[in-house]
Specification:
The chain is α/β, with parallel strands linked by helices. It has two domains: about 1-80 and about 380-415, Roll (Urease, subunit C, domain 1), CATH 2.30.40; about 80-345, TIM Barrel. About 30% of the residues lie in helices and about 25% in strands. It contains 13 helices and 20 strands. It has a seven-stranded mixed β-sheet with strand order 7-6-5-8-18-19-20, with no helix packed on it. Strands 14-15-16-17 form a four-stranded parallel β-sheet. Helix 2 (about 105-125) packs across helix 3 and helix 6 (about 245-255) packs parallel to helix 7 (about 270-275). The radius of gyration is 23 Å and the shape is globular. The protein binds zinc ion. The site of zinc ion has 4 residues, from loops. It holds the Pfam family Amidohydro_1. This is Amidohydrolase family protein. Keywords: Signal. It comes from Chitinophaga nivalis. InterPro entries: Amidohydro-rel, Metal-dep_hydrolase_composite, Metal_Hydrolase, Metallo-dep_Hydrolase.
Length: about 425
C-alpha cells in the first residue's frame, strides 16, 4: 500500500490527498500462454494488484509509478499444477520399502521433508498441487499451516489427509504387525466405516478425499464408493480414487467420483464411460527414468512405460478429461523433486500429446479437477496472480518448463533469475 493520490494546486504546491491505494505491478509479457484457448499471444501487459490479476491486454494504461516487471524476452504462463503429489515421501533410490518407512521415520521428519519439497516445487513453477496422502500422521496438514503462517513459502495445497482403503491399506504386513498401516491409511470396510473415515479426514484438514479401491482381490463396491462420494459431497469435497481398471474402476466412475488416479488397465470402454460421466484421468505415467528408480530392471521399466503410453494415447484419442499428475515418491539422484516430476513430460511427448494440451492439463484442466478454476489456472482478470515464465517457447519444446526463470505466487515475486 502506498499513498498515491496527489492533488496539485494552481500555486504549484502538491498535497497528498491521503487516499491509500494498493501498489499495481505491471508484467510486460513478450509471449503469453492463454490456457483457455491453448494459444500463445504476443506483447501483452498484465496488471496485478492485491495478489490478483486486474487487467490484461496489449495496450492497457499504467502509471510510471507502477512497479514494472520486464519479461518481454520470456514466455509467460499460469503457474503449473500437479494433481498427484506425495510431498513427505522419499524412498531410497532403487530400494522401495513402504513398511520400513513407517517404522523408521517420524511424522516430524516427514513434515520437514514435505516443507522442503513444497518450497522446491514452488521455486520451480508449481503454484498449486494436490497432496494425495501417505503423509504419516497428517504431516502435510502442518506443512499447509506453516505456509499459511508465512514460515515457509509453498504452493496452494489441496489436501487428502489419510488414504481411505479396504482392510490393509497398500501394505504387506504379518499378522503380528496388524494395523502398522494405520500410520498412513484409514481402514474402512462398508458404507458406515467409509462415512466415518471421510469425516475423520475432514476433521484433520482434508479438502479432497482419496480412496484406494483395488489393491487386493477385494475392492470397493458401488455402494461403498457411493457412500464416500455422498459423504464428501455433503461437505463440498470431491473424491479421487486409486484404481487400475476393471470392475473396481467401473464402480468408481459410476459413483460420481471426480477422478481416477493411475488407471493403467483402463480399456477403451471404461475411458469412454469416463468421458460420458466427466471423470478425470490423472494418469501418473512415469518416464523410464522414474520407473528405474523403483529398482525395476531396464526391460521391466520399459514394459511399464509401454503400457502407460498406450493408455495415455487412447485416453487422448477418446477425449477422456485429463489432468497432470506425477506420483513421484523416489527422486532421481542429482535431481530435486520438481526435476524428477518433470521427467514425466517425456511420456506425454512420446504419446504424441500436443504441447498446448499438456500445458492445459497442467493449468486449466488441473484447476477444474481440483475445484479451484474460479481462482486459479488461467491468467485472467480476477484470478490469483500465480504466474511463471520460461526462457524458450514451450509450445515448440515442452522441456522449456524445466527451466523456470520467474515465479509469482498470489502476486508476490518468489523467483526472478
Ligand atoms: Zn500415489
Amino acid at each position: 500500500m502506498k499513498l498515491k493520490k496527489v492533488i496539485c494546486s494552481f500555486l504549484g504546491s502538491c498535497l497528498i490527498a491521503g487516499v491509500l491505494q494498493a501498489q499495481v505491478t505491471i508484467i510486460k509479457a513478450g509471449h503469453l500462454f492463454d490456457a483457455a484457448t491453448g494459444k500463445m499471444l504476443s506483447q501483452q501487459l498484465i496488471a496485478v494488484r492485491d495478489g490478483k490479476i486486474q487487467q490484461i491486454g496489449a495496450d492497457i494504461p499504467y502509471s510510471p509509478t507502477d512497479s514494472i516487471i520486464d519479461l518481454s524476452d520470456a514466455w509467460v504462463l499460469p503457474g503449473l499444477m500437479d494433481c498427484h503429489v506425495h510431498l513427505t515421501v522419499a524412498f531410497p533410490y532403487r530400494k522401495v520399502a513402504i513398511e520400513h518407512m513407517y517404522m523408521t521415520e517420524s511424522t516430524a521428519l516427514r513434515a520437514l521433508r514435505g516443507a522442503h519439497n513444497a518450497q522446491v516445487l514452488l521455486m520451480n513453477g508449481f503454484t498449486t498441487i494436490k497432496e494425495i496422502g501417505n503423509d504419516a500422521n497428517y504431516a502435510s496438514a502442518d506443512v499447509i499451516r506453516a505456509i499459511k503462517k508465512g514460515w515457509i513459502q509453498g504452493p496452494t495445497i489441496i489436501y487428502a489427509g489419510k488414504i481411505i482403503s479396504p482392510y490393509g491399506g497398500q501394505t504387506a504386513a504379518s499378522p503380528e504387525h496388524e494395523h502398522v498401516w494405520d500410520m498412513e491409511y484409514l481402514d474402512a470396510n462398508g458404507a458406515d466405516e467409509i462415512r466415518k473415515a471421510v469425516r475423520k479426514n475432514i476433521y484433520y484438514g482434508a479438502n479432497v478425499i482419496k480412496v484406494v479401491t483395488d489393491s487386493y482381490a477385494y475392492h470397493y463396491s458401488l455402494e461403498e464408493m457411493t457412500a464416500a462420494v455422498t459423504e464428501a459431497r455433503q461437505a463440498g469435497l470431491k473424491v479421487t480414487a486409486h484404481v487400475m481398471g476393471g470392475e473396481a474402476a467401473r464402480n468408481v466412475i459410476n459413483s460420481g467420483a471426480a477422478a481416477i488416479e493411475h488407471g493403467v488397465d483402463l480399456d477403451d470402454e471404461l475411458l469412454q464411460l469416463m468421458k460420458t460421466k466427466g471423470t478425470f484421468l490423472v494418469g501418473t505415467d512415469l518416464a523410464v527414468s522414474n520407473n528405474l528408480a523403483y529398482s525395476a530392471d531396464s526391460a521391466t521399466a520399459r514394459n511399464y512405460y509401454r503400457i502407460d503410453i498406450d493408455r495415455l494415447k487412447r485416453a487422448y484419442r477418446i477425449g477422456t478429461k485429463m489432468a497432470f499428475g506425477s506420483d513421484i515418491i523416489i527422486d532421481i539422484p542429482g535431481k530435486n523433486r520438481a526435476q524428477t516430476i518433470l521427467e514425466i513430460l517425456q511420456s506425454w511427448k512420446d504419446a504424441g500429446i500436443p504441447n498446448a494440451y499438456v500445458l492445459q492439463c497442467m493449468t486449466r484442466y488441473a484447476a477444474e479437477l481440483l475445484g479451484v478454476e474460479k481462482e486459479r489456472g488461467l491468467i485472467a482478470p480476477a484470478l490469483a496472480a500465480d504466474i511463471i515464465a520460461v526462457k524458450t517457447d514451450p509450445l515448440k519444446d515442452i522441456n522449456a518448463i524445466k527451466a523456470v526463470s520467474f515465479v509469482m505466487k498470489d502476486g508476490k515475486i518468489i523467483r526472478k533469475d
